[in-house]
TrEMBL record:
Stored SUPFAM superfamilies: FAD-binding/transporter-associated domain-like, FAD-linked oxidases, C-terminal domain
Protein name: FAD-binding protein
Organism lineage string: Bacteria, Bacillati, Actinomycetota, Actinomycetes, Micromonosporales
UniProt keyword list: FAD, Flavoprotein
Residues annotated as domain FAD-binding PCMH-type: 51-219
Source organism (scientific name): Actinoplanes lobatus
Presence of the UniProt keyword Flavoprotein in the record: yes
Keyword set includes Glycoprotein: no
InterPro entries membership: FAD-bd_PCMH, FAD-bd_PCMH-like_sf, FAD-bd_PCMH_sub2, FAD-linked_Oxase-like_C, FAD_lactone_oxidase-like, Oxid_FAD_bind_N
Signal peptide positions on this chain: none
Length: 478
């Protein structure tokens, strides 16, 4: 911490923090009142300040712990934990509070014999994939893009295109957690098991995940297979196929809105598993982006895109490695306009009830006037590990990407649509995902997450002074 940095913070409370930061070399670099936002770009949040973690989890814990004690005694505001801030409802920030930016804590240590990687929670998949790739390994479960931090991925309990796997918590051997009391605990299914189940999928409310031991999977060349079908047949056709990775796409073309589907499956080529393969980037990102963005606000653009996806993609697709498939930045398709954002929703529905939910969603979205840009379907298996599980049986996850203008009216319209979609998925026995906009009512949240009240009671027992808080807790935890 430099003297200039300390002065920039400028208040008695902050100077105290600065002293600890100096001892432990955590630079607290942003001024009080710094304005942060998340991937939604509609959540400007004025925070007390940002602390940056140290590359070493031990040093991070040593220097953050005194601040946690000051928070507990009411001498400092509470703390939110942040990775890359790709959540969209303030889950990684707290108005007026401290934010711990974990990204510098990015050490990676691969145990090839055990096929387990120990990784600092601030590391991103973008940093981890090349290290695994060089050893013939690949992440076992991650999102469909590589931008996210490991801590953020574990705290939402992410999932992706991996077929036949529960969410990422199923791949975690152990985590090290900095608790509200400033202790560092090892948590696993057999050690501090309650905290393990709460912290994975716990949105930073039970402590700071410092590092994690994750199981890894052999990299391999994957052969792609494409099939088009009516959405009504997707669940049956999917169940009859095997694959290591797979995703579905539903049409957003107005001529076949949500009624047609494409299933893309990847199967490993014999003899390639565990070999060291070149890590390449996705093909023609500019072209992919142009086709995608030209479909925004345009029925014709959506018809063209769907025709290309259905007819041309199977001919253009070539075998590629599992790591190459996963090594894709979200920015390829992202909205860069200052006036609008791409806003994600995700709904989880029991596999047999997919078409029931999609039909209901079609009847809600089509007349809503909200621009649905994309829907992908994921295979997510039952999660028996986390307290706040969203996949309590084998489900399909439907990721919906909408364009939303940065106006209060557009947000109101999105809130109404979100609530209607949550009711529809609940009627089909399903749930919804929590990293996105916090539009659900409290009753909808409790219906989708029956363990919510027990999880909040555990929060108050384990963190009685509410040291860790964020936008999700402010919305539903009180
Ligand atoms: C374009 C896009 C695509 C996405 N695709 C997928 C997908 O395919 N599958 C999927 O499952 N999700 C997906 N998501 C959601 C994404 O997985 C989550 O938003 C995830 O949290 C992002 O990681 P992050 O590092 O940005 O976390 P942040 O947004 O920074 O944090 C998310 C939550 O984790 C907590 N947290 C972060 N780090 C720690 C830590 N070290 N210790 C304790 N708590 C911590 C925060 O407090 C917060 O509550 C997508 C999001 C976007 C924007």
């Amino acid at each position: 911490m430099t003297a200039a940095g300390a002065l920039a913070l400028g208040s008695a409370t902050t100077l105290a923090v600065t002293r600890w930061a100096g001892q432990g070399a955590i630079p607290a670099t942003s001024a009080p009142g710094a304005l942060l936002d998340d991937a939604s770009r509609i959540n400007p949040t004025s925070v007390r300040g940002v602390l940056f973690a140290d590359p070493s989890p031990e040093r991070t814990a040593r220097t953050v712990a005194p601040l946690l004690r000051r928070i507990a005694t009411g001498d400092d505001p509470a703390m939110a934990v942040a990775g890359v801030r790709h959540s969209m409802g303030g889950q990684s920030m707290l108005a007026g509070g401290w934010v711990l930016d974990t990204r510098p804590m990015n050490r990676i240590d691969l145990d090839r014999a055990a096929a387990v990687v120990r990784v600092g929670a601030g590391a991103t998949w973008r940093e981890l994939i090349p290290v695994l790739n060089e050893a013939g390994f690949s992440p076992k479960v991650m999102q469909s893009n590589h931008d996210f931090s490991i801590g953020g991925s574990l705290s939402v309990n992410c999932h992706g295109w991996h077929a036949s796997h529960p969410p990422i918590a199923s791949t975690v051997r152990r985590i090290r957690l900095l608790t509200a009391e400033g202790d560092v605990l090892t948590c696993s299914p057999t050690e501090n098991a309650e905290l393990f189940a709460l912290a994975l999928g716990g949105y930073g409310l039970y402590g700071v995940i410092l590092e994690a031991d994750l199981e890894v999977w052999p990299n391999a060349i994957y052969e792609p297979h494409f099939e088009s079908m009516p959405t009504s047949e997707y669940a049956t056709r999917f169940a009859a196929r095997t694959s290591e990775m797979a995703y579905g796409r539903l049409s957003v073309d107005p001529l076949s809105f949500l009624e047609e589907a494409i299933l893309v499956r990847f199967t490993p080529e014999a003899g390639t598993a565990g070999t060291v393969l070149p890590l390449t980037s996705p093909a023609a990102p500019e072209l992919q982006r142009a086709i995608f963005r030209n479909s925004v606000g345009s029925g014709v653009g959506k018809t063209l895109r769907w025709t290309l996806e259905r007819e041309a993609a199977p001919w253009l697709a070539a075998p590629m490695s599992r790591n190459t498939i996963q090594n894709q930045p979200a920015a390829v398709f992202a909205d860069h306009s200052p006036d609008s954002s791409d806003i994600l929703h995700e709904y989880f529905v029991p596999r047999a009830r997919l078409w029931e939910f999609v039909r209901a969603a079609r009847d809600l979205i089509a007349p809503s006037g909200v621009d649905l840009l994309n829907v992908t379907v994921r295979d997510v298996r039952a999660d028996g590990r986390t307290t706040l599980a969203y996949a309590r049986e084998d489900v399909f996850g439907l990721v919906m990407n909408f364009r939303q203008e940065h106006t209060a009216r557009a947000d109101d319209r999105m809130r109404d649509l979100t609530r209607a979609l949550i009711d529809a998925v609940a009627a089909a026995g399903g749930t919804f995902y929590l990293p996105y906009r916090l539009h659900a009512t409290a009753a909808q949240l409790r219906r989708a997450y029956p363990a919510w009240d027990a999880a909040m009671a555990a929060k108050r027992r384990l963190d009685p002074n509410l040291v860790f808080r964020n936008g999700l807790f402010e919305a539903y935890g009180r």
